[in-house]
Amino acid sequence: MKREERERQLLDVAEAVFADHGYQDTTMELVAAKAGITKPVIYDHFGSKENLLVKVVARAREDLLSSTKEALDAIPPHSPVEDYFRAGVRSFMEFFERRRGSFKVYMQESAVAVVAGQDIEQIRQAQARDIAERFGDIPQIAAYPLPYREAMAEIMIATNERVAAWRLRHPEITLEMAVEVVMAVLWNGFASYTADTAPEVDLSGSS
């Protein structure tokens, strides 16, 4: 098996093991046994359990970002901004529905903040920047200041994560209901701003 194929296999196995057992109770021996290999092979690819977790979360976020971009690209040009926003929210919820194992790992971040929190937070920030830049490609949103678009992306990510976690505790909540909850909470606030009234933010560091 080629190195890239082996790495994908190990990430698939590790994602499932982390999701089932949690970070603390997952061992490299357990991942190796599930993958049908020896433990040194995992260390050769990832170096440590901490780095294995970071790679699993990074891949989940990359897949989520790709799904979000595809959803935004599918909206017809010159559609209302609300349509783009709803498509972004729906793409989050559909990803979490489709990849529940990924999401369970994704939501373990707070539990392992001491272990790998800085690396994972950097991944989250990069995702928010990517979404903000993608918003900049949409004519109806491009006129908004970049800091506002970044704030929009950060708030969208955080709210979707928490609502998706809430759904794990309430399986009776459908995907459609979850999307409407997020839209009801966030959209009215975002819609109250226009490109002209959105607050300017000084990122130069000067007072």
From TrEMBL:
Regions recorded as binding DNA: 27-46
Naturally occurring in which organism (per UniProt): Knoellia flava TL1
Protein name from the UniProt record: HTH tetR-type domain-containing protein
PROSITE patterns: HTH_TETR_1, HTH_TETR_2
Keyword DNA-binding: yes
Keyword list, A-Z: DNA-binding, Transcription, Transcription regulation
Highest taxon, organism lineage: Bacteria
HTH tetR-type domain boundaries: 4-64
Pfam families cross-referenced by the UniProt entry: TetR_C_46, TetR_N
InterPro entries xrefs: DesT_TetR_C, DNA-bd_HTH_TetR-type_CS, Homeodomain-like_sf, HTH-type_TetR-like_transc_reg, HTH_TetR
